[in-house]
Amino acid sequence: AVMNFEKASVFRELSAEDLALQGISYAKLRDFDSSKKVLDRVRVISPNSGVVMIALGVYYFEKGEFREAYYYFKKASERLPDSIEAKSGMLSSLVNIGVSEYKENPDIALVYFKRALEMDPNFVPALQNCGVIAIEKGDIEKALYYFNKAISFSSMKAGTPLLYHSHSSIISVSYTHLR
């Protein structure tokens, strides 16, 4: 994908959207220096673009900087209220912030998982993680509620922008919708 962008740029100036997608491609390849360079450039060209905000969200998400990713996905959602990518990025960022807080303070982690559930009451990773914390607290009834709800939604539709990775018992989410 990056090669195609580089070839296209020889023939014409890339649009802000093309540059944003190029930045995402570099981030997905873990070439963060190139991604940042492209995204800094596109930010100057189109500072209020929702697509640019999504690209910045993906950049920070791929770097593991989930709070920054959430910030940019939220900005994208404000500019593009119907964007599935922005909402998915926000949800995935919230769950991963919770995962990063889990070892130090499961109660703070639970706050982030519940914030994700406020946005989408059927978000499986948040449901599963709430279930894990409920088990750890000895609340089996609440754990069963979360796990049963997660199971009922676990047959996700094709194209759902999620991959699960086990991180102790807690489940983190990789944002993979934009490639």
Poorly predicted runs: 7-11, 157-170, 175-179
Question: In which range does the helix fraction lie?
Answer: 55-70%
Quote the distance from N terminus to C terminus. 9 Å
Radius of gyration, in Å, reads 18 Å
Determine the mean pLDDT.
Answer: 82
Q: Shape from CA axes?
A: elongated
User: Which strand order do you get reading across the main beta sheet?
Assistant: 1-2
Backbone structural class: mainly alpha
User: Helix tally?
Assistant: 9
Could you describe the largest sheet, including whether it forms a barrel? 2 strands, antiparallel
Q: N-to-C SSE series?
A: HHHHHHHHHEE
Beta-strand residue percentage: 5-15%
Number of strands: 2
Labels describing this entry:
single chain; about 180 residues; mainly alpha; 9 helices; elongated
How would you summarize the topology of this molecule?
Elements: H1 2-11, H2 16-28, H3 32-45, H4 50-63, H5 66-79, H6 84-102, H7 106-119, H8 124-136, H9 140-153, E1 162-167, E2 170-175
Antiparallel strand pairs: 1-2
What does this structure look like?
This protein is mainly alpha-helical. Helices cover 70% and strands 7% of the residues. Strand 1 (162-167) and strand 2 (170-175) form a beta hairpin. The chain starts with a helix and ends with a strand.
